[in-house]
C-alpha cells in the first residue's frame, strides 16, 4: 500500500499505560503489603526493604484497579462509589481501545502491546474473564457496530488471524492442517514489510464469529503447549485484525492492520541473563523478548538524536512488530503490575521497561490506494518477472538460486491479484461453513458436559485452563495415554505420559482410575499405584506435570466455586504432600504462621513455581539418558551471619550425576535458563524420532552439564567474645548445612598470643575489655581437625576446604585442600594483629562470631586460593586487621564544636581521678596507722607487706580463671541450645512417634537447664570463694 500523497507522516510517540491489579489469593494469604501508589498520571513504587527508597514514574495513562470495587448483579466489577478511583474494563477500553479502533477506521495501522510478569493481569486486560470483557473482544464488538453504521458509504471486509511465537517458531493457531516442522516462515515484502507466509486469514462478519475463532485458537494453543511441553508464559500471542474499507465512488481502498499482542511473561527476559551461566545466550525461547528490549532501548536512544542500529531482524517477534515500533503504526502499550511487596523486583523492572517505550516515535500514515491501479501494477510487475525468468533460463544452472526467488515473488503477486479479484462473499461463505462446523463441535461438548463425568485441564495461564475436556462416557473402561487407536481411548500428550498410562473405569455411576505399571499418577497430591475411586473435584497429575480436575456426574455437582482449584492449588498440594508448606517453613524459623517473614513467603512461592519445572527436567533427563537428577533445596534455611541473624532465604537446585556422584548447585535463574535449553534439546530429539541418528552434544553446549566448582556445604560459628578478655578458647563446633543437617564437627581454637606467636598466660587475662583500647592485640586461629565429613562419606574421591574472613579483611582466607579423608587433620594456624585496638574492633569481638565456611571439592574442580591483595602483614607474617577504625575517621572529621565537648569530658575525667587519688591517700594513711600499731615482729610485718603487695594481682588472676571456666562451659550450653532449636518432629509421625519426640525433647530441655544452672552456680561459687579469701587475707577489704 502507498500512502496518500497529501498525507504527510507525522511523528507520533508510543502511548504507554500502566494498570495495577488487586492482590491475588496467594498474595492475600501471605499478608502482602501494597507498595504501589498513584497520583494523577504518576505512579510510585516503594522498596519493601527500605521505606525511604522509592521511585516515581509518569505515563500517559495510569489505572488503579487494586481496590475500591464491587461486583454488581451482572457480574461486572465496578467502582464502589460513583466517581471512585477504581478503573474498570470499560474505562480502560475508552482510553486505549477506542483510540485503536478510531485509528484503524481512519486507515492507520494500530498496535496494542500488553507487557508484564506472568500473573500480573495481562490476560485480564486483553481478553478478560466472564462478563468483564477485555480490550480484544470489546474492540471487535465495537468494530462491527461501526461497520454496520457505515455500510451505506463503504464496503468493509474484516480478516482475522491468530498466531503464537514460541522458541522463534511461528504457529498458526487457526490452521486446519497439522503443525509443520519448524513453524511458518517470516518473509519480507518491499512495500508492506515483514509478513508470515501461509498464515490463515479468516473472513468475519460478526463479533460472535471472532469470539469463536479466539476460542478455537486458544484450544489449539493449549493442545500445542501440552504436546511440546511449553508454557504460555514463555510464548507470545499475536492477533491480527485486518480491516479493508472499499470506497466505490472514490475508487479508493483503505487497509489497516490491527496488531493485538500479548507478550510473554517479563520475568523470562531477566531469567535469560542468569548470572554466571556460560550458556545464557544460547536459548531461543527468550530471544524475542530480549531483542524486543534491545529494539525499544535503541529506539529510545534514537529519539534523543543518537544514530544507532535498530536490531529488528534479530528475532521473529521484532520483525513482525517493526511497523508498530518506530514504523507505520499508532501504538499503545499497557504494562500490568502486581502491587505486592513480594513482586517488587519484577514490578520495578516492568516500570523501567515501560518508561523506555514511551520515548519511541512512530511515523504513521493513512494506508490507501486506488484498487484497480494496484491490480495493473501487480500484473505489470509479473510480466517483468516472467521476462527475467526466461533470460535466466538461457544462462544455465548458475542462475538457479535467483530463478527460485523470482518464481516465489511471481507466485506471491499472483496470490495478491487473486485475493483482490475474488469476491468477498465467496471468502465469507467458506469461513461461515468452517464456523458452523466449529460451533457444532462446541455445542456437542456443552451437551456432553451435562451428561457425563470428565477431566478438565488446569494450566499455569488461567486463560488456557478448562479448555481441554476428556469425557468418561457410558459404563466400561477408558484408556488414557498417548495412544489414540481405539474409540475408547482418551489421548493426551506430555512429558512422562506412556502409550497406555492409566485406565478409567465407569461402573454403576462410580469412576475410578488405575495406573499402568510404571506410570506416574497422583491423586490429591499423593501418588497412587492401585485402583483409586475418584470424587468430584479430585485433582489428578498424570506423568510429569499434566494437571486435570475431575468433574463428577451432574448429580454430584454443587454450587461450589471450581476456580479455587487453580494451578497454584495443585502445586501447593504437591508440596504439602512432600512436607513443605508455609506453616512448617515458618515453624522451622520460629515465625508465627499468621505473621510469616516476607523472605520465607518468597521462597515458598518460588518453590511452588519451580516444582513442576524440576519434575519435567528430571523426566527429560531420564528420556534423553543424561543420568542427571535435579532436586530443589532452600539456601540458608538454617544459617545465620556473624551476629547470629538469619540469612536471607533463597531457592537453589541441586544437580547430581547418578553415575559419578558429581554435584552442582544452580541458582533459580540459572536453572530456569537451563530448563529452556533442555526443552530445545528434547524437542530436537523428539522431532528426530526413535530411529534418528542422535549425535551427542558437545559438553560445552550440553545444558545438563557444567564445569565443576567448589560447593558451599555449610558453616559454623566461633564466637569471639573470649578474645576481648584475652582468654583462649578451644571448641568443637558443628558445621551446619543450609537445611540444618550436620555436615561435620570442627575442632578449632582462638589463642591470644604475643607478637612472636607465644600463647599468653593467665596473668595476661583482662577483667575489663576496655583495657585493650589503643593497645596491640595478637591472636591465632587454629583449625586442628575436621571429623565426620558427610560430603566425603558419600564419595571418597572428594575433598574439603575451610574459608573465613576476620573483621575488615578484604578477602576470605582458605585452608589448604584435604582429600579422600572423612576425618582429616587440618593443622592450620593463622595469626592476626591489631596494632592499635579500636572501639569498632572491640565491639566486633564482643558481639560477633567468626563464620567458618565448609567448601566441598570434587575431582576436576579448582581449589579455592587465598587472595592476599590488599592484605598487610607484620614482620612476623601476621595478618593486620583493624587498619582504619571508624572512630578515627569520625575524630578526623569533627569540627571545633566537638573539640570543646571533648575538653569538658576530659575535665570531668580529671576531677574523677583527683577524687580517686584523695581516696587512695586516705586509705594509705589508714594502712600506715595499722602498721605502726602492730605488735608483731619485724619479720611478720615484712611478710604481711609482701602478702598485701601480691594480693590484688592474685585476685585478678583468680577472677580471670573463673571467667575462663565460665566461658568454656557456656560454649557447650550454646551448642545444646542449637540442638534444641533444630529438634523438630517429622510431618509423618504418628501418635506414638510424637510421644517419643516429646519425651526426647523433655530430656534435652532438662539437660540444657541443668547445664545452664551448673555454669551459673559454678561461677557464683568461684566468685564467692575469691571474695572470701580476700577477706581472710586483709581486714581492710572486709
TrEMBL record:
This is Kinesin-like protein KIF28P isoform X1.
Amino acid at each position: 500500500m502507498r500512502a496518500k500523497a497529501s498525507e504527510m507522516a507525522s511523528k507520533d510517540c508510543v502511548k504507554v499505560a500502566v494498570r495495577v491489579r488487586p492482590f491475588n489469593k496467594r498474595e492475600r494469604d501471605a499478608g502482602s503489603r501494597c507498595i504501589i501508589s498513584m497520583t494523577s498520571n504518576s505512579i510510585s513504587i516503594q522498596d519493601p526493604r527500605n521505606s525511604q527508597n522509592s521511585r516515581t514514574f509518569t505515563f500517559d495513562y495510569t489505572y488503579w484497579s487494586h481496590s475500591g470495587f464491587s461486583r454488581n448483579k451482572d457480574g461486572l466489577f465496578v467502582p464502589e462509589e460513583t466517581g471512585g478511583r477504581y478503573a474498570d474494563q470499560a474505562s480502560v477500553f475508552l482510553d486505549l481501545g477506542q483510540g485503536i479502533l478510531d485509528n484503524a477506521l481512519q486507515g492507520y495501522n494500530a498496535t496494542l502491546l500488553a507487557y508484564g510478569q506472568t500473573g500480573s493481569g495481562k490476560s485480564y486486560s486483553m481478553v478478560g474473564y466472564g462478563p468483564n470483557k477485555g480490550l480484544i473482544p470489546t474492540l471487535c464488538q465495537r468494530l462491527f457496530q461501526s461497520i454496520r453504521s457505515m455500510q451505506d458509504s463503504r464496503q468493509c471486509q474484516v480478516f482475522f488471524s491468530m498466531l503464537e511465537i514460541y522458541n522463534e517458531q511461528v504457529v498458526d493457531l487457526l490452521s486446519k492442517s497439522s503443525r509443520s516442522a519448524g513453524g511458518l516462515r517470516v518473509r519480507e515484502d518491499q512495500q508492506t514489510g515483514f509478513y508470515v507466509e501461509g498464515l490463515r486469514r479468516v473472513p468475519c462478519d460478526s463479533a460472535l464469529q471472532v469470539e469463536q475463532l479466539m476460542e478455537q485458537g486458544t484450544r489449539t494453543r493449549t493442545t500445542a503447549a501440552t504436546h511440546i511441553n511449553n508454557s504460555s508464559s514463555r510464548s507470545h500471542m499475536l492477533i491480527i485484525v485486518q480491516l479493508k474499507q472499499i470506497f466505490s465512488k472514490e475508487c479508493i481502498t483503505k487497509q489497516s492492520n490491527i496488531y493485538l499482542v500479548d507478550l510473554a511473561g517479563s520475568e523470562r527476559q531477566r531469567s535469560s541473563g542468569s548470572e554466571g551461566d556460560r550458556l545464557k545466550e544460547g536459548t531461543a525461547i527468550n530471544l524475542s523478548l530480549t531483542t524486543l528490549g534491545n529494539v525499544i532501548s535503541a529506539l529510545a536512544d534514537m529519539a534523543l538524536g543518537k544514530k544507532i542500529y535498530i536490531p529488528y531482524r534479530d528475532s521473529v517477534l521484532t520483525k513482525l512488530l517493526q511497523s508498530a515500533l518506530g514504523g507505520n503504526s499508532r501504538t499503545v502499550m499497557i504494562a500490568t503490575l502486581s502491587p505486592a511487596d513480594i513482586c517488587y523486583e519484577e514490578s520495578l523492572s516492568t516500570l523501567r521497561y515501560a518508561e523506555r517505550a514511551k520515548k519511541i516515535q512512530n511515523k504513521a500514515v493513512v494506508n490507501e490506494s486506488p484498487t484497480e491501479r494496484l491490480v495493473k501494477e501487480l500484473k505489470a510487475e509479473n510480466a517483468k518477472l516472467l521476462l527475467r525468468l526466461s533470460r535466466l533460463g538461457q544462462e544455465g544452472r548458475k542462475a538457479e538460486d535467483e530463478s527460485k526467488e523470482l518464481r516465489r515473488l511471481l507466485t506471491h503477486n499472483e496470490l495478491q491479484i487473486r485475493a483482490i479479484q475474488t469476491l468477498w462473499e465467496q471468502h465469507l461463505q467458506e469461513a461461515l461453513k468452517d464456523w458452523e462446523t466449529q460451533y457444532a463441535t462446541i455445542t456437542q461438548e456443552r451437551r456432553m458436559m451435562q451428561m457425563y463425568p470428565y477431566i478438565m485441564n488446569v494450566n499455569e495461564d488461567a486463560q488456557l485452563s478448562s479448555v481441554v475436556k476428556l469425557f468418561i462416557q457410558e459404563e466400561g473402561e477408558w484408556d488414557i495415554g498417548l495412544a489414540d487407536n481405539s474409540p475408547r481411548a482418551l489421548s493426551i500428550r506430555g512429558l512422562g505420559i506412556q502409550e497406555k498410562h492409566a485406565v478409567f473405569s465407569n461402573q454403576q455411576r462410580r469412576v475410578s482410575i488405575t495406573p499402568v505399571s510404571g506410570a506416574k499418577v497422583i491423586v490429591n497430591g499423593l501418588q497412587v499405584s492401585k485402583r483409586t475411586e475418584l470424587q468430584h473435584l479430585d485433582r489428578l497429575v498424570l506423568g510429569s506435570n499434566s494437571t486435570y480436575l475431575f468433574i463428577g456426574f451432574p448429580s454430584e455437582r454443587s454450587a461450589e466455586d471450581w476456580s479455587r482449584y487453580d494451578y497454584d492449588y495443585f502445586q501447593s498440594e504437591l508440596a504439602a504432600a512432600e512436607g513443605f508448606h508455609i506453616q512448617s517453613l515458618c515453624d522451622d524459623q520460629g515465625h508465627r504462621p499468621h505473621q510469616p517473614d516476607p523472605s520465607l513467603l518468597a521462597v515458598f512461592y518460588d518453590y511452588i513455581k519451580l516444582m513442576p519445572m524440576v519434575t519435567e527436567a528430571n523426566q527429560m533427563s531420564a528420556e534423553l539418558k543424561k543420568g542427571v537428577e535435579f532436586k530443589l533445596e532452600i539456601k540458608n534455611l538454617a544459617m545465620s551471619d556473624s551476629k547470629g541473624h538469619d540469612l536471607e532465604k533463597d531457592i537453589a537446585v541441586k544437580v547430581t550425576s547418578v553415575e559419578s556422584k558429581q554435584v552442582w548447585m544452580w541458582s533459580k535463574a540459572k536453572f530456569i535458563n537451563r530448563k529452556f535449553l533442555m526443552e530445545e534439546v528434547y524437542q530436537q530429539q523428539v522431532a528426530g524420532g526413535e530411529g534418528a541418528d542422535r549425535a551427542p552434544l558437545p559438553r560445552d553446549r550440553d545444558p545438563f552439564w557444567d564445569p565443576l566448582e567448589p560447593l558451599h556445604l555449610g558453616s559454623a560459628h566461633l564466637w569471639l567474645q573470649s578474645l576481648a578478655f584475652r582468654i583462649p578458647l578451644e571448641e568443637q563446633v558443628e558445621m551446619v548445612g543450609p537445611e540444618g543437617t550436620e555436615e561435620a564437627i570442627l575442632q578449632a581454637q582462638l589463642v591470644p598470643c604475643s607478637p612472636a606467636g607465644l600463647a599468653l598466660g593467665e596473668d595476661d587475662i583482662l577483667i575489663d575489655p576496655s583495657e585493650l583500647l589503643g593497645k596491640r592485640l595478637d591472636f591465632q586461629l587454629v583449625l586442628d581437625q575436621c571429623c565426620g565429613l558427610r560430603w566425603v562419606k558419600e564419595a571418597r574421591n572428594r575433598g574439603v576446604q575451610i574459608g573465613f574472613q576476620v573483621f575488615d579483611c578484604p578477602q576470605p582466607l582458605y585452608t589448604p585442600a584435604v582429600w579422600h579423608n572423612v576425618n582429616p587433620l587440618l593443622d592450620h594456624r593463622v595469626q592476626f594483629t591489631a596494632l592499635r585496638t579500636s572501639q569498632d574492633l572491640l565491639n566486633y569481638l564482643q558481639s560477633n562470631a567468626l563464620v567458618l565456611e565448609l567448601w566441598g571439592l570434587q575431582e576436576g574442580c579448582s581449589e579455592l586460593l587465598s587472595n592476599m591483595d590488599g592484605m598487610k602483614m607484620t614482620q612476623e607474617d601476621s595478618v593486620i586487621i583493624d587498619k582504619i577504625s571508624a572512630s578515627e575517621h569520625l575524630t578526623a572529621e569533627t569540627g571545633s564544636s566537638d573539640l570543646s565537648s571533648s575538653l569538658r569530658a576530659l575535665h570531668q575525667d580529671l576531677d574523677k581521678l583527683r577524687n580517686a587519688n584523695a581516696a587512695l591517700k586516705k586509705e594509705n594513711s589508714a594502712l600506715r596507722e595499722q602498721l605502726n600499731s602492730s605488735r608483731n615482729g619485724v619479720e611478720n610485718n615484712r611478710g604481711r607487706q609482701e602478702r598485701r603487695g601480691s594480693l590484688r594481682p592474685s585476685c585478678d588472676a583468680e577472677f580471670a580463671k573463673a571467667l575462663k571456666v565460665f566461658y568454656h562451659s557456656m560454649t557447650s550450653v550454646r551448642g545444646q541450645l542449637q540442638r534444641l532449636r533444630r529438634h523438630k518432629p517429622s510431618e509423618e509421625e504418628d501418635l506414638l512417634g510424637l510421644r517419643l519426640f516429646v519425651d526426647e525433647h523433655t530430656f534435652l530441655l532438662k539437660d540444657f537447664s541443668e547445664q545452664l544452672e551448673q555454669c551459673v552456680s559454678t561461677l557464683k561459687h568461684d566468685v564467692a570463694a575469691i571474695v572470701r579469701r580476700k577477706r581472710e587475707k586483709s581486714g581492710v577489704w572486709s
